[in-house]
Write a structure and sequence with these properties.
This protein has 15 helices and 17 strands. It is of the alpha/beta class. The strands form two sheets. Strands 1, 2, 3, 4, 5, 14, 15, 16 and 17 form a nine-stranded mixed sheet that branches. It has an eight-stranded parallel sheet with strand order 6-7-8-9-10-11-12-13, sandwiched between helices.
Length: 418
């Protein structure tokens, strides 16, 4: 396919050029490319799709459950009792609802940790979106549970092998819910299989203080003492970091997955993102689950991030840096060749209509994308060279069916949980 006449974001600037896509990848970026199959992108801005690096996608079914509560109370009183009653079909339709929202708001790839992950594999294949996924490992320091969870993670890994749109990583929930033995087993399996690790770290002040009491170290220092920090690990949240923690993450090359809306809603705190960026840490962006956000809209998340960190200085996180955090930095964290419009990269693209109130006037396109873009301006979405949304219509998903089935499953879930 030849994408003709669009204004694309390439090497940090916007230029009018054609794009040639073959077998899901970008093979040429230049003017006047000839070809039989073409897509007219006149009047459209083309950007790499957003990469949402921390989600619990099926929790979209729990949107609006337990608002305005602290994290531990929210988990123990609202979320965990509902999760104990989840079924495969609950998770499938929760996943489909989340995927609808992500595609329609410009996300082409997401990194997910949850349960019933075979339901997510089914949903991703049905929808045509790209995903990295892991089974959430929580042994609560119990050997039998540890063995059961590791067996399930390996089963899900086997299901992901050979899938073009799906990659797998190991997903220990957090140091406070995972034994040292589980963390070391994860490290060994990830190394042997050349896969990444996805974990929550230093999300709350309580987690930080408990770690200091139990280990005499911060959560980051504890992870480093187990030699778990390197460029293949993804650390979600990292809200409570000391100067030494930031130095450790920088030196080891570990990736930080920043979730500002969830951290604000749960009153977890504000991560020291400007300091991390200045320390050359790869910071990417995630929404967390829709039960603590309450959405999966990466543009909204990006804008919140950009504005939040200007509390320290108006020069913190300029629009171009914020955009990179939402795109190419996420691809780097996941080890994927997407997040930028480059020859050799995957053709995961978002087409934005310039004739939309949120994009006019065009004094500064990247500023408009970060600060004012609305979902209605997103005309098309392409994943792996295939159009998953054309003219705002999803191509592989019956949107109304998703809404009806998700609503029904959510009602049944709440009924089962009492």
């Amino acid at each position: 396919m030849i994408i003709k006449g669009g204004i694309l974001y390439h090497n940090g600037r916007f230029l009018k050029s054609d794009i040639s896509v073959v077998n899901g990848s970008i093979v040429n970026i230049s003017k006047d490319i000839a070809g039989d199959e073409t897509l007219d992108a006149s009047g459209l801005v083309i950007i790499p799709g957003f990469v949402n690096t921390h989600t619990h996608n099926a929790m979209t079914l729990l949107r609006g459950v337990g608002d305005d509560m602290p994290l531990q109370e929210w988990l123990s009183e609202k979320i965990w009792p509902l999760e104990a009653n989840l079924t495969y079909r609950d998770c499938y339709w929760g996943n489909m609802l989340g995927i609808v929202e992500m595609i329609k708001t410009g996300t082409t790839c997401f990194n997910d940790m949850y349960f019933f992950m075979d339901s997510l594999i089914e949903a991703v294949k049905d929808a045509g979106i790209r995903a990295s996924l892991c089974h959430g490992l929580i042994d609560l320091f119990d050997e039998e549970k540890r063995d059961k969870d590791l067996k399930e993670a390996k089963r899900i890994h086997d299901l992901c092998r050979g899938e073009e749109l799906i990659s797998f990583c190991m997903g220990p929930h957090a140091p406070y819910t995972c034994s040292k033995e589980l963390l070391l087993a994860v490290k060994e399996y990830a190394y042997e299989n050349d896969i990444r690790v996805h974990i929550h770290l230093s999300e709350t002040c309580k987690e930080y203080e408990d770690s200091m009491r139990e280990h005499g170290m911060s959560p980051t220092e504890y992870m480093n003492s187990l030699s778990l920090l390197d460029e293949n690990i993804m650390l979600a949240h990292c809200v409570h970091l000391s100067d030494n923690d930031i130095d450790i993450i920088s030196r080891t090359g570990a990736n930080v997955l920043h979730c500002p809306c969830s951290n604000l809603k749960l009153s977890s705190g504000i991560a020291r993102v400007p300091e991390m960026v200045r320390s050359s840490i790869n910071v990417s962006l995630g929404t967390d689950g829709a039960s603590s956000n309450n959405g999966l809209d990466m543009q909204s998340e990006m804008k919140t991030m950009a504005l939040l960190h200007k509390l320290g200085s108006p020069t913190n996180l300029p629009a171009s840096t914020s955009f990179d955090i939402a795109t190419i930095n996420g691809a780097k964290a996941l080890g994927l060749k997407c997040g930028a419009i480059e020859v050799g990269n995957l053709a995961d693209l978002v087409f934005i209509d310039l004739d939309h109130y949120s994009m006019r006037p065009c004094h500064n396109i990247i500023s408009n994308i970060v600060y004012s873009l609305r979902p209605g301006a997103i005309r098309h979405v392409m994943v792996n060279g295939s159009m998953v949304m054309e003219d705002r219509e999803l191509t592989f998903i019956d949107e109304q069916e998703v809404y009806e089935k998700a609503e029904a499953q959510a009602s049944r879930l709440v009924g089962r949980a009492g």
